[in-house]
Design brief:
alpha+beta; Multidrug efflux transporter AcrB transmembrane fold; Alpha-Beta Plaits; Gyrase A, domain 2; 5 domains; eight-stranded antiparallel β-sheet; four-stranded antiparallel β-sheet
Length: 715
């Protein structure tokens, strides 16, 4: 009776946690519905809007100049949307994201113009302007009458401004002089005395924050920085809504299929894992809201992918439990030993995935950061739910009477497969696949002029995606192409999206005026809804940087993974074998991009690093079993047996985790919009390649490294 009571308590706690997280996620807390899904900040690719990156004309502006410019742009952007975000990128670039806006071209035209600030007397005469101001800073002083500390702004004028201000203050003692920024009055202090030394004190601020804000606005008016557009992206709200709806549908279907798979394959543990997975998903929605994460379309893909990967920790544990029951252990003992023996593999495999996510976050930009964020949150949360929630629930179900070993499955002793004996066949397969990919690079070079189908992110230029309200005919496509040629010249490429009335037009980099001309013509002559026009423009300099960042990010991720494996396994040969496996996976994904000619853009980096994290995850599970089985083996034959047995023991885990992850990604490929599909297809190939390399390459390469270096050492 006591055991049953102890069994119900964890179940009730988990059910309550699911109910609480679900309530917060669906309804929210308080009048503002804090924590609800509807309050999750959506990126531009989901909410629609404008994203633009500016570069300053100065190569090395000061930190103060950049901070002031960011502040100015934030205030300007907030005039269009309170959800606008402005942030620095590198040392001389500023990103501006304004979701939910419709008149994108007007915003692009107005946003980057230099601000204007002026001091006006009560008759509306201009007293001084930005060029007369040397600096402004927030400070404090004691009020001579009350003795209290007050917050003020100290305004310092240059030589020209000093004389102008002296005359103006002398003529306006007892009157107000208004400080006007971008035609908006931000302060109107009263002149108490003539100011002839070029230093004015503006009082009346209630807090230091107010004083800092006023000082920053005044400095902005005198800021010499010129901003130049280097990248912009305009997304219609309707396109964003379609993207999120299709991705969510893919996620729901995939989630249901994963749960069914887990229950069928793992029985009671699979059912328990499904409960933990529901808590995992509800908690992730709340965490995204609490951390104020901006959810992008790749971010949604990251959540869906992490659901498939979240099952992996459970699969490792359940495989161990089956093994322990198969050796004659009781169910209770098998549960304890299963978690204990799976712990190191779970931690090591997930940490390497987190390494990939961290590299992706710091070396990526925009939507790629969103993907990295959701992936990292998902991995960390999945470890928690697997190692704590699943553990307590399994014990609870055992105490409630689920103590029959048949309910958990029994892994019977199977024949050890000779993977080392099959290396000639498996290596030939890998070499043939990689060789085909390399051949496709040369084919592409001959046919399209580039080894890969580089998108705007890597090539530069302007891409316009147009969704028509009527059927898109060949004649309409030719007419639209003619419109673009009239603006951009002959360098125009058009492509129709299959099974949709959508046309994508790629040109050289168009100016804002040229983009406006084209969009006006589309609305007027082709009855296109302006909200259904998506425009993206990237300068050649930015695209070249993104190319180098893509290569560098893969190298950096591999380096840190190698170091981590070396430290954890205390043997560099494990790390070297893992890197060789990763090289195989990278080439396979590259082959898919080359053969299918999928557009290579910013999501290419996300795809590559995700595959690196996923593949190393699977490889470490194998290595962890090799380390466990190693014992005192010294001979080549004994080592071969250990490696073969370790791969065989983890084979079912490799297959089942691949299936659960593929379920989610396949749903994205089937139901997702084009941009998601272009991400999902190479990801599917990478997942299969990761499963192949972890089973057929990593362990065998480690064996050959170990035996080869051992021979060299004896000599």
């Amino acid at each position: 009776m006591k055991e049953k009571k102890n069994g119900w308590l964890p179940v009730l706690i988990v059910v309550a946690a699911i109910a609480l997280c679900s309530y917060v996620a669906l309804v929210g807390i308080g009048k503002g519905h804090k924590g609800s899904i509807e309050n999750i900040r959506l990126g531009l690719d989901l909410a629609g809007g404008v994203s633009i990156t500016y570069e300053t004309d100065k190569d090395n502006p000061s930190a103060e100049e950049m901070d002031d410019t960011v502040y100015k742009m934030q205030k300007r952007a907030e005039n269009y949307s309170t959800e606008a975000q402005v942030y620095k990128e590198g040392t001389n670039r500023i990103n501006v994201d304004i979701p939910g806006v419709t008149d994108a071209n007007e915003i692009l035209q107005q946003l980057g113009k230099a601000g204007s600030i002026g001091f006006y007397d009560e008759s509306g005469n201009l007293v001084i302007e930005g060029s007369d101001i040397e600096t402004a800073e927030a400070t404090t002083q004691k009020n001579q009458t009350t003795g209290l500390t007050e917050y003020v702004v100290k305004l310092t004028l240059n030589a020209g401004g000093k004389d102008k201000f002296a005359q103006a203050t002398a003529a306006n003692v007892g009157k107000q002089i208004a400080i006007v920024y971008d035609q908006k009055t931000i302060s109107a202090p009263v002149v108490s005395t003539t100011i002839s030394d070029g230093v004015a004190i503006i009082s009346g601020q209630e807090t230091m924050d107010e004083a800092n804000e006023l000082a920053s606005v005044i400095r902005i008016g005198a800021l010499p920085l010129q901003l130049n557009e280097v990248r912009s992206n305009v997304v219609g709200a309707k396109l964003g809504l379609e993207a999120i709806n299709t991705s969510l549908l893919a996620g729901i279907i995939g989630f249901i299929l994963v749960i069914l798979f887990m229950i069928v394959v793992y029985r009671v543990p699979g059912f328990v894992a499904s409960i933990a997975l529901i808590l995992y998903l509800a908690a992730e929605m709340v965490i995204l809201n609490v951390l104020n994460v901006t959810l992008t379309l790749p971010g949604v893909a990251g959540i869906i992918l992490s659901i498939g990967m979240a099952v992996d920790a459970n699969v490792i544990i359940f495989t161990r439990i089956k093994e322990e029951i198969g050796t004659g252990k009781t169910v209770q003992s098998a549960i304890k030993l299963g978690f204990d023996k799976a712990l190191s593999a779970i931690i090591d495999s997930n940490v390497t995935t987190i390494i990939a996510a961290v590299v992706l976050y710091f070396m990526g930009s925009g939507t790629v950061k969103g993907f990295a964020t959701t992936l990292a949150i998902g991995v960390i949360l999945s470890m928690f739910t697997a190692l704590t929630v699943t553990k307590h629930l399994l014990r609870a179900f055992y105490n409630l009477g689920c103590d029959n070993e048949k309910l958990y499955g029994i892994k019977k002793e199977t024949k050890t497969w000779n993977f080392i004996g099959m290396v000639k066949k498996t290596y030939v397969i890998a070499i043939v696949v990689i060789g085909f990919g390399i051949a496709m690079l040369f084919v592409n070079k001959a046919q399209i002029g580039e080894i890969l189908n580089y998108g705007l992110d890597f090539r530069g230029g302007t891409s316009t995606e147009i969704t028509f309200n009527e059927a898109l005919t060949d004649d309409t496509q030719k007419d639209v192409e003619a419109v673009f040629q009239g603006v951009a010249g002959s360098n125009v490429e058009t492509s129709k999206v299959q099974n949709a009335d959508v046309l994508i037009v790629k040109t050289g980099e168009l100016t804002l005026d040229q983009r406006t001309t084209v969009e006006d013509a589309l609305v007027k002559d082709f009855a296109v809804d302006a909200a259904n026009i998506k425009t993206e423009s990237i300068s050649a300099n930015v695209s070249n940087e993104m190319k180098s960042d893509a290569i560098l990010s893969v190298i950096v991720a591999c380096f840190f993974m190698l170091i981590y494996i070396w430290v954890r396994f205390k043997d560099l040969k494990f790390g070297a074998a893992a890197v060789i496996s990763l090289i195989n996976d990278v080439f396979v994904v590259l082959m898919v991009y080359a053969a299918v000619r999928i557009s290579v853009g910013s999501t290419f980096i996300a795809c590559m690093l995700t595959i690196l994290g996923y593949s190393i995850n699977a490889t470490i599970v194998v290595f962890d079993r090799v380390r466990e089985n190693m014992g005192g083996a010294r001979s080549k034959e004994a080592l071969a047996e250990i490696v073969n047995k370790s791969i065989t023991d983890t084979f079912s885990r490799s297959v089942n985790t691949t299936i659960t992850t593929l379920i989610m990604v396949v749903m994205l490929a089937i139901l997702g919009v084009d941009s998601v599909r272009e991400f999902a297809i190479p990801l599917m190939a990478g997942i299969l390649a990761g499963a192949f390399s972890s089973v057929c390459i990593s362990g065998t390469v480690y064996f050959f490294f170990r035996t080869k270096f051992a021979k060299s050492k004896k000599r």
